[in-house]
Amino acid sequence: AVPMCTKGMGALVRRMGAQRKSLEAILAEASRDQEASDSKLSLVDLLGIGIGTTIGSGVFVLTGKAIPIAGPAAVVAWILAGSVCLLSSLAYMELSARLPTKGSCYVFSYHCLGELVGVVGSVCLTMEYAMAGAGVARNWSVKMFQLTGAWYTWCYNGGSAPQVGCDEENDFFLDPLAALMCALCTAVVVLGTDMGKLVVNTFTMMKISLVIFLIVAGLTCWTGNMFESSETFAPKGAGGILSATSLLFFGFVGFDEVCCMASKAKDPAKVMPKALAGTLLGAALCSGLAQFALAGMVPYAQGQGDIPFEKAFDERGMHWASWFVGVAELALLPLVVLVSILPQPELWAAMAEDGLLPSVFCRRTRGVYRQGTVIIGCVFTLITLAVPFEVLWDVINVGVLLSFNLTNASLVQVRYGNGGQVRAPMVSALTWAMMGAAAVSGFALYHGIAAPLDAGTPVAWPLVACGLAGAVLAAGAAFAIWRFFEVQCDMADPAIFKAYGVPFVPALAMVCNFFLLATINVKSLGFFAAFAGFGVLLYVAKIGSNKSPPKQDGKLDDACVNVDVSEVSTADGGSEGNHV
């Protein structure tokens, strides 16, 4: 019995590390999704989802937090943060064109890095999508309580809100109002694409209009001259700008959500890169201009605290503008909850079609994964009710940054022949070595330079040396891939976006992402590890109980066939390999 058990465990481990989703299966899935009886998303619709997700906390919250850290130079920090996002966005643009189906980082990782890594990618996306929506819903309810003065909560300590440990700073309470918001947004998703995109586009235009109001009204209250001297513009120097960049990067979280909606897009291979680029550009423009207006309205002062737009307008005597911004923000924040939940059924449907989740998640009724969406809504409504935003936020950011690195690694793999199966084992080994070296570099450079500068302590030169050594090793791995291996995928097709500087740009993106990951506390890293571990255990239990081999032909099981479509074309999907 023991040898049989050992043999079975060995086969399971080999599958987890070596099994990859074939290109044939991905293209068949993409073809089937395009033929599904459902309304399609245009470029404008995808931009509405992307910008609607991204513009939120960045403009309304982080701009005010950045002023005490960097002063007017926070505008420069927005540019740097956007540049870091741009490095990773290039990988998303190319992979979304080569693998135009739902699932985003999950599918990219499954195809290029293996089934187990794909599952980890799905955990990261779940943190970024539905879990982030739960956090935003709790943040929305706190704003409602602050505006009305009525706290409809039950504190964990048995007291009454607001009090220490049960207020806007530490939301350790049951939040039925946030749970109701999550349930209502789930209901909109269940109603289908037509209703969803109408709501998203309307609210996104209203949100952009509010940002324009903030910029124009802020510029009319310009005070002082931020460009008078370098000390006036950047009162805390390079250290302040670097610290603000680490904070403001998270204002771009969500730009990649549009990738998970590829199955509902018109001509996804063509439109997805444009949607990603437009989302990032739109978010950077809105956030940067809003930061510029706020910096001009509120001159930097030593020891000042966070100063959001509402407080800034109050200080300038524009109380009506402060009230208007508070009410408008409260009305528009539910859009972020909606667009966070929107891609989650797509992700879990992709996993169900691959046999990694129960088939209930991939059953479509009139083009909508209704049963799966209802289950997802119930689960995350409970999370919204009970889990504090304080716990969720940093854990979400861990998932986002890790998904960025998995996507960068996937691009290197697919470029050099390892999509669908391992054809170049040394490329795979070098890619993982590059990621490991980037992790050492990012963490060491943050704790050696950024953290000491922020704390006003001397630079830790041994850590700096370690960080530079890690960067050199990452660059060396990238050089070895570029010098000794040939590109194995189609680079001539003009319809496919090609990322620049592969594998060097992905290596740089990994270092930057790990640098930002180092800003997150150990407790939150532990929470994410526990959540990811739970997801992997569920995956092991699922495939361990599955006696049949994983599907690689792209055809659906009967349980996943559309309820309203009697026959679904599976297409031939093209030849196996990386020649997309």
Structural write-up:
By secondary structure, the protein is mainly α. The protein has helices spanning 2-18, 23-35, 43-54, 57-70, 74-98, 105-112, 115-148, 176-190, 193-219, 230-233, 237-248, 268-297, 309-315, 319-332, 334-341, 344-353, 370-386, 389-415, 425-455, 461-484, 504-517, 522-544; strands at residues 154-155, 173-174. Helix 3 packs parallel to helix 12 (268-297), helix 7 (115-148) packs antiparallel against helix 16 (344-353) and helix 19 (425-455) crosses helix 21. The chain is globular and about 65 Å long. The model is unreliable at 562-579 (pLDDT under 50).
Count of helical stretches: 22
**Number of strand elements:** 2
The whole-number mean of residue pLDDT values reads 85
Q: Which of globular, elongated, flat, extended, rod-shaped describes the shape?
A: globular
List the helices and strands and how they pair.
Blueprint: H1 2-18, H2 23-35, H3 43-54, H4 57-70, H5 74-98, H6 105-112, H7 115-148, E1 154-155, E2 173-174, H8 176-190, H9 193-219, H10 230-233, H11 237-248, H12 268-297, H13 309-315, H14 319-332, H15 334-341, H16 344-353, H17 370-386, H18 389-415, H19 425-455, H20 461-484, H21 504-517, H22 522-544
Antiparallel strand pairs: 1-2
Question: Notable features of this structure?
Answer:
globular, single chain, 580 residues, 2 strands, mainly alpha, disordered C terminus
